[in-house]
Design the sequence.
């Protein structure tokens, strides 16, 4: 039996709207992440107000919480598990936006343009995380467990990449202290973004009691 049969078919309007709004949060967080890391790694100024975009995500998080609470007050028996899942992961969407803003702030600490092999290495990792945003958004909105698992496996494989990168930066003798600190901080936050995306999508791929954990799928069908 498939894990998330309750995600299919007709859903209560408030629950359905909450899932749509979660998708919007991921889309906006993806835009923020792309802009913030472009400033960090390509030295490209951000062309929009990233603080305002972050506030939009915050407001959507509040909207999702209100909608789910209203639905549960009206009929707590209908889509109860799905409602609890949404409440469990909506903060991960908000945190992805917060981290994108934090990456931008950290990149502003750099005292000169970022370039060189360490920047290129982080760019490769960034590109993999960036690709997870549309994958996670589609998998979550469509309740596609197979696509969700792809995202979770990608995050799991990136963990060793982040460790290796941080070790290389820490032992490097070709980076200024300023750039080493900025790149290390931002690498850590990029890793946290990947983790939050995996957390969100775990609500589709994993049983309720195992969300936010590494992908140990086993026989679930």
Sequence:
């Amino acid at each position: 039996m498939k894990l998330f049969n309750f995600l299919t078919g007709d859903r209560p309007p408030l629950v359905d709207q909450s899932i749509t709004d979660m998708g919007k949060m991921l889309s906006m967080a993806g835009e923020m992440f792309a802009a913030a890391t472009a400033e960090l790694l390509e030295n490209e100024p951000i062309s929009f107000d990233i603080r305002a975009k972050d506030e939009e995500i915050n407001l959507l998080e509040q909207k999702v919480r209100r909608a789910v609470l209203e639905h549960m007050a009206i009929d707590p028996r209908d889509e109860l598990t799905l409602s609890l899942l949404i409440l469990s992961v909506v903060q991960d969407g908000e945190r992805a936006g917060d981290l994108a803003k934090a990456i931008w702030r950290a990149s502003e600490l750099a005292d000169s343009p970022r370039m060189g092999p360490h920047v290129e290495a982080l760019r490769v990792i960034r590109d993999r995380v960036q690709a997870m945003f549309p994958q996670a958004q589609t998998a979550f909105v469509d309740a596609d467990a197979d696509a969700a698992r792809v995202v979770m496996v990608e995050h799991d494989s990136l963990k060793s990449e982040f460790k290796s990168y941080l070790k290389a930066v820490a032992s490097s003798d070709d980076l200024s202290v300023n750039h080493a600190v900025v790149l290390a901080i931002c690498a850590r936050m990029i890793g946290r973004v990947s983790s939050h995306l995996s957390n969100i999508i775990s609500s589709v791929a994993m049983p309720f009691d195992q969300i936010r954990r590494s992908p140990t799928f086993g026989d679930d069908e």
In short: The two ends are 5 Å apart (CA to CA). Helices lie at 13-42, 50-74, 80-107, 117-142, 145-170, 177-205. The chain has a mean pLDDT of 89.
